[in-house]
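Hey, can you fold this one?
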Amino acid sequence: MSDKLNNIIEQLKTLTLLEAAELVKQIETVFGVDTTVSVGAVAAVAAPVAVAEAVEEKTAFDVTLTDVPADKKIAILKVVRNVTGFGLKESKDIVDNVPKLLKEGATKDESESIKKEIEAAGGKVTIK
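Sure. Predicted structure:
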C-alpha cells in the first residue's frame, strides 16, 4: 500500500464513531454513492476504539452469592428462598456452600434488586 493510503488509514483510526458516521455521509454526498450496506464495516474499520465503546449494553446477568456471615445465615436463607423459589433444603445448601449461583440470566433491575436484598440481610453477591 502506498504512503498516501497508509496515512489516510492512520487518520481514519483516530476518528470517533460519530465522526466516522459524518465522514460516510460526506462521502455519499460528494461522490453520489449509497453506502447503506457497508456503513457498519466502514465505521468498524474507521473507529475500532469507538466501536468497542459502543458495544451493546449487557441485558442478562448472573447473580452469585459469595459471602454469608454465620450470624446472618437465617436472614440470607429467607432471601435466597424468595429469590430462587427453592425449598428450605435447597436454599440451605446454597447458603452453606458459597460461592453459589443464585440467578442465571437475570435482568439488570432484577439482579440489582437481588443484590440489595442480600446485602440488606448481611450477605455479599457478585453480578456478572
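Residues 17-31 form the longest helix (15 residues). Let me know if you want another pass with a different chain boundary.
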